[in-house]
Each structure stands twice: as structure tokens, then as C-alpha cells.
Amino acid sequence: MKMKKEMDIMLLEFSCSNYKSIMNKVTFSFLASKDDTYEDELKSFSNFKVLRSAVIYGPNGSGKSNFLNAIEFMQGLILNSINYQPGDDISQYAHKLSGDETPSIFSMQFIKNDIRYAYGFSLRNRSVDEEYLYYFPKNRQVKIFERKGISIKPGDKYKSAFELSYEVLKENRLFLSCAANFSKIKEIEQAFLFFKEDIVVYNPEVNNWTEYSMKLIQKNEKIKEIFINILNSLGTGIRDIDTKFEKRNIRVTDLSKEMPDTLKSLLFGETNQLSVKLIYDHFETDLVSEESRGVKKLFEVICPIIDILKNGKILICDEIETSLHESIVWEIVSLFKKAQTNKFAQLLFTTHDTSLLDSKLFRRDQIWFTELDDSRSTDLYSLAEIKNVRKTENLRNGYMLGKYRAMPIMSQNIYSLFNDDKKEGV
Fold first, then answer.
1. How far is residue 5 from each of residues 137, 139, 308, 311, 341, measured CA to CA in Å?
2. Are residues 152 and 273 in the same domain?
3. Which CATH number is 169's domain given?
4. pLDDT tens sequence across 378-419
5. pTM of this prediction?
């Protein structure tokens, strides 16, 4: 029996400008360079090859998080702008040195179900200024629509397909959002679903996937088995997991007397309470009250990562190492490098963990850096763009020595501050 071919989903490139610390256009790419290292781990599509993962390094305040946040901002506006009401402004986080009329621009190229798409928009004065969507059947560019202000120019194939979408279009709504909800165009739907279902943005300060993970474990024995095997490979000693979602009646008397009455009224009543017991060889523990932050973080991120790997999604993760040992981060990154699945999952993350700067883990075109230029604007570049970097080079040492730039520079030796104070008798 002939096996059904899996449809590819991939992020290829993302660019943005005039967003937070990013003033001039910066571009990240998952497209592989001519480097022949680990070629068997690349994914071929059309006449180019695609990387599975990439990492971004740079000093604090250089714009690493802002760059990933720009992807999240683009995704959020696509998914939510259909709900914007008249008078609602689009939040536009322009660079402090940009002029009032300078647009903020976001663009992305991606693969959805074996078809390449190019989508982008610009914002000016907290409204949508321009927008476009193209796709490339048989490697030939076809216009789906172009936009200027609230004027839409559909492609020849779509001239009579957008009637209802025009009616709901406003200056503060993206046309992709409108057309995805008020048309039946397959290409529009696929482009919208890429942002809705295939890009997963994880921010440790915002996301908490623990409950989601426990529901996956409770419903899917296979995911539970994979999860426990991963925990064992990481040396946690956990043999089994007992999860329960119990209904509990919370009485007003159970809540703190210092809590405002208005808040009490929202909290008391029937609620679902999560109970997670971890089974070791000779004892068990309660995940919430007895386990370390590191173990809790594993429960928060591993199951979603399993789901991302199994379904070929793209994980965007800021500071992946938070509350995790460096060896565990290495193993998580290795999963995207070595996972034997029919799907092609991708990982883009920021980190300060220099132990990951290793040619055993990454090609040169998978390592990226951010730094601030003279105008306090974020610059983004890859190690592949830097000359005279050998394949066998100790990348961690090269980075720490400032060979690739993107390192914090002290204008004065910090110890001299204390020495000066000492001399003055402080």
C-alpha cells in the first residue's frame, strides 16, 4: 500500500523594521547556506534546503527578545485584528529615533502544505498602511491580493472572491484576517492557519503549559510513555506520573480574609483542581508543592515540545534555558536535530548558555547574533556571514573572546570602580 506523503510546513524567512529596538530592516533565515555540514539533517524543498533549528546570542538589551517578540506581534495581529472596533488603534512599537511617518514593516515567507507563501504588512500612524499575500504554485509567483490603505487589488484569479471581506475591512484590520473569516479561498485559509496553528511562541514570563501538559498525559498514553522515557533519559528518576483533575467546591472561608470581597466573589464556587503525583522508586512527591523549579519547568515544556515534534510545528522560544540545567537544554535542542518523525519541526530560540555554542550541535548558518549599532538599533547577523570561521573552530571561545562581536563592552573596568573608592578611603 502506498504511503500518503506528508505535507511540508516550514518557516523560511522573517523580516521586520521599526519595531522596539529594531530600527533598520533585519532578516532571519532558515534557508541553508552552501555549508556541507550535517547535510543529511536538512530538508529539501524546491531548489533550496531548510534548517531545523537556529539560536540567537547577544548581550542583554541588544534586541534578541524584541526580535522574537516581533514574530509574536505579527502573529497576534493576524489572529486578532478582525475583532478591532472603530476607534481602536493598532499598537505600534516604533523605534525611539524613527520619525512619526516611518512605517513598521513585518514580512514572512513560509511553506504550508507544500506551497510557498509570502505575506507582509506595514503599519503607519497605528493603522494598516500596506499589505500583500502571494503564493508560488510550481515556483511561479501568483498575487492573491495587494493593499494600500483600505484599497484592495486582488489577483486575477480572485477578483470576484472578496465581496464580503471588503465590507468588514477597516484601517485597523488586516485583510488576511478579514478574508480568512469572510471568504472561502483555500490559499487565504492556509496562510491564516499557518499563523494560527503552526507557529508556537513560548515566553517563560507569560506562558504556563503545565495544565495543558497534564491533560495531554491524561488523555494520551503514548505521549505519557514518550514523556516518561525523556524524563528517564534526563536522569530525573521519575518512573510514573499520576494526574487527576478533581472538582472542588471553594468556600469563601477557604480564602484569605485579606482578599478583597470582589475577588472572593470570582474565586469561590466549583473549580477544577489539578493534582500531579510523581512516582519514584521508593516514594512519591507532589509536583506543585514538593518539586524544584527545574522539574516543574520540564513538565511545563516537554509535552508541548513532543506535540510540536509530532505535528511538525515551529517553536519560537525566548531564553529556553530558564530554570533548566544546561545538559537538559542540550538534549531538548538535540531532539529537533535528531528526532526521527515524518514531520519537519523547527526551533528558533534565544539563549545566554554558551555551552550550546558547539559545532557538534549547530552549523555556522544556524548561529545568529544581535548587537546594537551606533544608533542604538538592533543588528542581526549569522555566524556564516563572518569570514575566517573554521568548521573545527571552538565557537564558544571565539564568542567569549569577541571574535564574532555581539558581546557586552565595559567602558571601564568594573573592578577599577571599587579600587578608586578604596583609594579615597570608602
1. 18, 19, 19, 14, 13
2. no
3. 3.40.50
4. 999 999 999 999 888 999 999 998 999 987 655 556 556 666
5. 0.87
Q: Strands 9-17, 26-29: parallel, antiparallel or unpaired by DSSP? A: antiparallel
387 and 300 share one domain: no
Q: How many CA atoms lie within 13 A of 15 on its CB side?
A: 12
Q: How confident is the model over 125-144, as a mean pLDDT?
A: 96
Can you count the helices (H) and strands (E) in the chain?
A: 12, 18
Q: Yes or no: say if 330 and 351 are a contact pair by the CB < 8 Å rule.
A: no
Element spanning 269, H or E: strand 269-279
Structural domain containing residue 173: 1-204+318-410
Q: Is residue 415 part of a domain?
A: no
Angle separating helix axes 186-193 and 175-182, nearest 10 degrees: 120
Same domain (yes/no): 233, 258: yes
CA distance 87 to 82: 13
Number of domains the chain is built from: 2
Domain co-membership, 33 together with 125: yes
| 420, part of any domain | no
Q: Is-contact 317 348, C-beta < 8 A?
A: yes
- Give helix 210-219 / helix 221-233 axis angle, nearest 10°: 120
Find out whether 370 and 376 touch, Cβ atoms under 8 Å. Answer: no
